[in-house]
Amino acid sequence: MESQPRSASTYDVLRAHGVDRRRFVKFCTMMAAAMGLEATIVPQIVEALETKPRLPVIWLHGLECTCCSESFIRSSHPIAQDVILNMISLDYDDTLMAAAGFQAEEIRKKLIKEHPGEYVLAVEGNAPTADGGVYCTVGGETFLSILEETAASAKAIIAWGSCASNGCVQAAKPNPTGAKPVHALISGKPIINVPGCPPIAEVMTGVLTYILTFGALPELDGYGRPKMFYGQRIHDKCYRRAFFDAGQFVETWDDDGAKKGWCLYKMGCRGPSTYNSCSTFKWNDGVSYPIGSGHGCIGCSEVNFWDNGPFYERLSGIPVPGIESTPDTIGAVAAGAAVIGVASHFISTQVLRATGKKIGSDTNAPAGEGK
Amino acid sequence: MLDERGTIKDAMSSGTMWRGLEVILKGRDPRTAWAFCERICGVCTTVHALASVRAVENALNVKVPQNAEIIRNIMFLTQQVQDHVIHFYHLHALDWVDIVSALKADPAATSALAQKVSPSWPLASTGYFKDLATTLTKFVQSGQLGLFQNAYWGHPAYKLPPEANLMAVAHYLEALKWQKEIIKIHTVFGGKNPHPNYLVGGMASAISMQGDNAINMERLNYVKGLIQDAMAVVENMYIPDLLAVASFYTDWAAIGGGLGNYMAYGDVPQNGIGDVSKFRMPRGVILNKNLSDVQPLDLADANQVQEQVAHSWYEYPEGKDSLHPWDGVTVPKYSGPKPPYQQLDENAKYSWLKSPRWKGNAVEVGPLSRMLVGFASGAPDYKEVVTEALGALKVPATALFSTLGRTAARGLETKLCVHWLMAEYDKLIANLKAGDSAVADTSRWEPSTWPADTKGYGFTEAPRGALCHWIHIKDTKIENYQIVVPSTWNASPKDGKGQHGAYESALLNTPMADPKRPLEILRTIHSFDPCLACASHVFGPNGEKLAEIVVR
Q1: Which residue of A has its CA nearest to B516?
Q2: Torsion over CA of A106, A111, A116 and A120, rounded to 10 degrees?
Q3: Which end of chain B has fewer beta carbons closer than 10 Å to its terminal beta carbon, N or C?
Q4: Would A281 be classed as within a structural domain?
């Protein structure tokens, strides 16, 4: 990234937008807070955004519903406009861009050819692999081949949302199109998974700004997710947790417990087995989150959540609580399951290799696992 | 396919993506279907969830409490308003607005123009536009144009003066900031957006006016404020901009008309979803542009809505060529060329979309259809906004049957919706004052209470048009689930009789200024607000390929 003298830094662009230095520093401070970083890190962010050119990003869409893009433009801090105009150079996004067809493909091909290893590939959706990839083609090319071509010269890959990270709804049984997440198709590149259907807006912009600021992927867990946003269960930080501990539950929809905002565990809430920031950041600038509005969590950031039993069936194997030790036991069980899941999952090696390293230093990592 | 003068003479529209939702839903718990279906689209999020819970409720004979009906209406109208504004400013405006030309604008003249066009919109000073012009200039000079590179800037079909372009760019950015505000209404009632939560039987968001842990006065006040802000955006920015831009492009009132058949299922119930006569958005079908005859439609009638696969990559049972969705089957069978390919054969199968037809007719769905059905039905609020807009643009009613008509109808509908939004909010408050706080009917929640074999359908009006889900529940599981989405109506391939779908039909006879840069195709296709990628290849009279565009 440092060897890229071709354009203005984020601060240059912001200044051109009439943003003074005081507001710029304030913005950096907010960003740090949003990412849960120490105040001491703020000067580092300021320095990075002052000196580094905007990061070129190619954003591809495969089998998906565009909810990730929609979530992204809901970001409140920073707002999407700042990200798109000032922080990254979103050079290709066939949903949002003004160009279309030949003109658009030209941009993508040019970036691949002229700036190999410099751009970040953001993938929304995933690729169908059954029947030669015919279930998703763009201009006669399979999405699979477009993904492979674009990934080959990318600096790093961001897998937006549950489609790109885990497969999501089209990969639910019987997965008629053979849809596979990015990490199952691409090897030899640092990949960061940002699951959720969609991911929280500020998680998306938080991931991007982290990468931009530190020039590296954030620390990832065994599933390739940034620990800063997916490190804890929704249940651990849920404001209804006290009712869980006290054994006060909603028993049927709209009952007295529902009006009092009691725990939704018996209504099938997946909060105890879902790792995400919903109960801390909340959604849409902190307005609410599913549990806060009376419906259980459906676990949309977890692997195979569509097939982990009907959403309204309470999680099995979890004793009805009332004593403090129980939730911790649940946590331990869930964490154990995650580790076992990862052992058979090639992404662990792929993703962990990239963790904490400078992006771009890892492009020669041995391939061979994966496909 | 163009003729010698560069006019479109033939067109084909192909959907090149299939995810298999109908197949995935088989055998699942019908109460969870809404969540799967909602993921059909994250742009018009909520509409598939709404259609799905209504389908299950219809099959189980559940009538949702009035509060739930009103909350669903509020969420529905919120989606409609937000989606239409985003479409106008972020997905369609750049077909009419030339960003590069905006660089030449004089900030003082832009300010004067803005104050004339939208006198009630506050951000209109010379300084404001000067800052924006500086920003744009620096942005263009930075060489990193991002999303705005390689578009058709400078194309001869762009007609706005630089000042109007600069104003439109300002509003593009303001609308981008605002759209994330109004959807907070979904977050209040559904917990998140995109993809808020719904519930078979009502809504999960309990109401407790005496507590701080459910929908209460604070939450309701918050919603009210968001509705008031939305009203200002629509009335003072969107509608004035729409009329101002449209006035430069009235030639488009004669282009892109298409089928002339318009269909709306209707929505925004006032007395339960079963009482069609009390919908704010009326139901009906108009054939051959005949506004004096609005025909009734019945979604349960096996002879009305049917789907065909003559040009779609699916297989139907032996001897069947047209099926009502309750009898519908989804068995994919690709027979197109092996990718990568240059072009599809329009005489063979060429799309992942089926061809839905109403009584054998190809019809258009969407805001234009809804406005025409409302207008032709004589609904007073529809008559008022349509007449007013035609007067402002000085065009006759026939101007509605066009690309411009489609884009204008979307704006007029937004105006109706934002006012209904406040009316529905007031109804909710009135209901709460009357002592009713119920949001869910749970009498049929347990599968043990269900009939062994039952069918239902659930409809709504998605931003892009009429949407319906048909469900067959057997032994408490989904036996069959069929979804006919708006874009299947509009973007459908030809049917067995060779009738074009709405997109294909609308492109015919469109003149193009520069066939190698087919901006005109984008305008017409974007006027439908397409929700899927559709590829256009432009061929000259001798079959030579001139351009290729992929529209989303």
Answers
A1: A102
A2: -120
A3: N
A4: yes
Strands A141-142 and B262-264: unpaired
Residue B354 has pLDDT above 50, yes or no: yes
Report the predicted TM-score, pTM, of the whole model to 2 decimal places.
Answer: 0.89
Give A336's pLDDT tier (boundaries 50, 70, 90).
very low
B17 contacts A61 by C-beta, under 8 angstroms: no
Nearest CB among A67, A89, A292 relative to B194 is that of A67
Are residue A71 and residue A172 in the same domain, yes or no? Answer: yes
Shared domain check, A245 and A209? no
List of chain B residues whose C-beta atoms are within 8 Å of the C-beta of residue A81: 173, 176-177
CATH number for the domain spanning A282: value is: 4.10.480.10
Number of independent structural domains in chain A: 2
Residues near A82 by beta carbon (within 8 Å), at least 6 away in sequence: A14, A27
Out of B99, B196, B208, closest to residue A259 by CB: B208
| pLDDT of A354 | 38
Nearest to B194 among A71, A142, A288 (CB): A71
Chosen from A96, A105, A283, A305 to mutate, greatest number of chain B CBs within 10 A: A283
Q: Which residues from B are below 8 Å from A101, CB to CB?
A: 535-536, 547-550
Give residue B510's pLDDT band: very low, low, confident or very high (50, 70, 90): confident
Q: Report the candidate in A240, A261, A247, A298 with the shortest Cα–Cα distance to residue B207.
A: A261
In this prediction, residue A283 has a pLDDT band, given cuts at 50, 70 and 90, of very high
Asked if residue A140 is part of any domain, the answer here is yes
Yes or no, beta carbons of B547 and A101 under 8 Å apart: yes
pLDDT digits (tens, 9 = 90+) for B215-224: 999 999 999 9
Q: Is residue A2 part of a domain?
A: no
- A43 within some domain: no
Chain B residues close to A254, C-beta within 8 Å: 202, 206, 438-440, 442
pLDDT of B234 over the 80 cut = yes
Nearest CA in chain B to A8: B142
Chain B residues near residue A301 by CB distance under 8 angstroms: none
Q: A353 to chain B, minimum CA–CA distance in Å?
A: 31
Cα B488 from Cα B394, distance rounded (Å):
34
Give per-residue pLDDT as tens, B158-191. 999 999 999 998 998 899 899 999 999 999 999 9
- Could you tell me the residue range of the domain that residue A337 belongs to? 234-342
Instruction: State the Cα torsion B288-B289-B290-B293 to the nearest 10°.
Output: 90
B528-542 per-position pLDDT tens digit: 988 754 445 555 566
Cβ pair A260:B208 closer than 8 A: yes
User: Same structural domain for residues A262 and A146?
Assistant: no
**What is the model's pLDDT at position B47?**
97
Mutation pick from B36, B71, B192, B220 vs chain A, by most beta carbons of A within 10 Å, is B192
Q: How far apart are the first and last CA of chain A?
A: 29
Go through the domains of chain B in sequence order and give each one's CATH number.
21-94+179-551 (1.10.645.10), 98-164 (no CATH)
pLDDT for res A348: 33
Q: From the centroid of its chain, how far is CA A114?
A: 28
Chain A residues near residue B144 by CB distance under 8 angstroms: 7-8, 53-54, 56, 89, 91
Higher pLDDT residue, B290 or A43? B290
Specify whether A175 is located in the same domain as A240.
Answer: no
Does A64 lie in the same domain as A189? yes
Q: How far is B354 from chain A (nearest CA, A)?
A: 14
Q: Supply the CATH number for residue A144's domain.
A: 3.40.50.700
DSSP string, B183-239: THHHHHHHSSSSS---BTTB-S--B-TT-SSSB-HHHHHHHHHHHHHHHHHIIIIIH
Q: Do A101 and B535 touch (CB under 8 A)?
A: yes
